[in-house]
Hints:
The protein has helices spanning 11-23, 37-40, 59-77, 94-104, 142-155, 257-268, 314-331, 345-351, and strands at 2-7, 27-30, 44-45, 48-49, 54-55, 82-84, 87-90, 131-134, 138-140, 159-160, 169-172, 175-178, 181-188, 208-216, 225-227, 231-236, 239-243, 276-285, 294-297, 304-308. It is of the alpha+beta class. The protein folds into two domains: 2-41 and 143-204 and 290-351, FAD/NAD(P)-binding domain, CATH 3.50.50.60; 85-139 and 206-288, D-Amino Acid Oxidase, subunit A, domain 2 (D-Amino Acid Oxidase, Chain A, domain 2). Helix 3 packs across helix 7 (314-331). The two termini are 30 Å apart. The protein binds flavin-adenine dinucleotide.
Amino acid sequence: MKDFIIVGSGLSGSCLAYRLERLGRSFVVFNDHSQEASKVAGGLMNPVVLKRFTLAAKADEQLETAIEFYSGMEEHLGKKFLNPLEIYRRFSSVEEQNNWFLAADNKRLAPFLETELVPQVNEHIQGQHAFGKVLKTYRINLRYLLDSYSNHLQEKGMLKNDTFDYGGLSINESGVDYKGIKAKNIIFCEGFGLLKNPYFNYLPLRGNKGEYIYIKAPGLNLEVSVKSSVFIIPVEEDTYAVGATYSNTDKTPNPTAAAREELLEKLRNLISIDFEVIDQAAAIRPTTIDRRPLIGRHPRYSSLFTCNGFGSRGILIAPSISEELLNFINEGKPLDPDTNISRFTKKWHKES
Ligand SMILES: Cc1cc2nc3c(=O)[nH]c(=O)nc-3n(C[C@H](O)[C@H](O)[C@H](O)COP(=O)(O)OP(=O)(O)OC[C@H]3O[C@@H](n4cnc5c(N)ncnc54)[C@H](O)[C@@H]3O)c2cc1C
């Protein structure tokens, strides 16, 4: 009898698995490659919403937890994937500059917004109204983190590279049985794949498609990330990720010509140097109707849980949310009502 089965080893499932490992709990993880949000993510960990200059909910507390968590994971795996990365916001008007200063007067935002503006970040980055630097920002090479952690689980025989077949799950008084694997609890972490889960697909997971292009721009020599209408993010020598797009209508996983054109147009307005597009990637963000995560216990089956709805800020929130869910399961500590899926129990009653 295992303590847990985890379905999905994107950011959500991997953070939970790592926490369980540290707690000495037994578990097995199932993962396929049907969803790629964590692998496609730009990897930015930034507590400030750069469209409106506000702080994401609980972002200041979550940032501290996240830095400690990912540093611990690095040490555990003997790999380096968390690095500080400066982010500059390009202002498109004097009004935006003023809004930046107004935001910086706010006590919670002040530690994150540099009030001394920079006239230029790089000779090839265009900008008429200066740039504001966001403080305490990082980039995680998420693909590297997830691959490293999967290899680690694989070596320990704790990862099954298989699609979880919901029809193979039976629920009993002592927990669950999945094709002979017995466990006290099962946590579903399928990202946008939750829509195929017959136990939790009543939850209002909307999904929002995001795309990046990757460019080679020798001579740009940009060592920081710049946000205008898109982000440009240095990923390797002379290579940059440019994105992302947002689409609520297209829920297909493939890259599109329309997104590529949109990103190219925005990029040409940002950099004044030749570049070559070398790749493009797309995935669906697990966004929710109220922009809050979806975590908690199934309304009927007490051994079934979900950890989902990370939206566009998974890197920042996953370490805190995974801790909150495990404290709830293991110690009975209450969940935050804003993230608890119990806020949708009425919907479940209506649909079941
Ligand atoms: C273009 C883009 C850019 C982004 N940039 C950032 C960023 O810079 N910073 C940030 O914080 N966030 C970013 N995000 C958001 C972030 O990627 C997500 O919040 C987060 O990765 C979601 O993680 P997840 O584990 O919930 O889902 P996923 O990463 O989708 O993982 C779910 C996993 O479950 C597996 N799975 C599903 N169903 C099954 C099944 N039946 N059996 C077995 N396995 C299954 C999937 O294959 C997948 O491996 C971005 C997202 C996109 C799309």
